[in-house]
Amino acid sequence: MRDGYGKSDSPIVPKRPPNKASAAEVVEGRGLAKGNLPEHKAPRTQSRSCVPRAMERVRQAAIKDRKQRFTALFHHVYQEDLLREAYFTLRRGAAPGMDGETWRQYGEKLEENLQDLSVRLRRGAYRVNPVLRVYIPKMDGRQRPIGIPTLEDKIVQRAVSRVLEVI
Prior knowledge:
Elements: H1 23-27, H2 54-64, H3 74-77, H4 80-89, H5 103-108, H6 110-123, E1 132-137, E2 143-148, H7 151-166
Antiparallel strand pairs: 1-2
């Protein structure tokens, strides 16, 4: 293609009218060539690299229609790959919650723990654990309360946050 990608596939309309032309010739342009069909965006062969991920499809739907309401996004939250991604984005040295489990302890049996968490989320059996309440002294003598959730709660919160960030 001499003039760039897709230039020869689109109809060509004359920019200036010819000097001695009738009115009908001025309006007419040249249509598509008979053998050239418009290009498809999808590749001809199937491969995993070209198939959009579920989150990317949600993002595209949100961009396409800004007023669209998303009512069924929970099935994205309990995907094990998203839960794994949420686990690895957590701070490794963060304080353990009420159950006392640290990031390193949870990671020793990571696949089992994430699979169990995913199944509990899917079944609706997951319950939020109690939050550890800690008081931090302020400069003026008062105390500021802080709640520290358990590691699993942090993972689920991060996964929900990730799904909502897409929108």
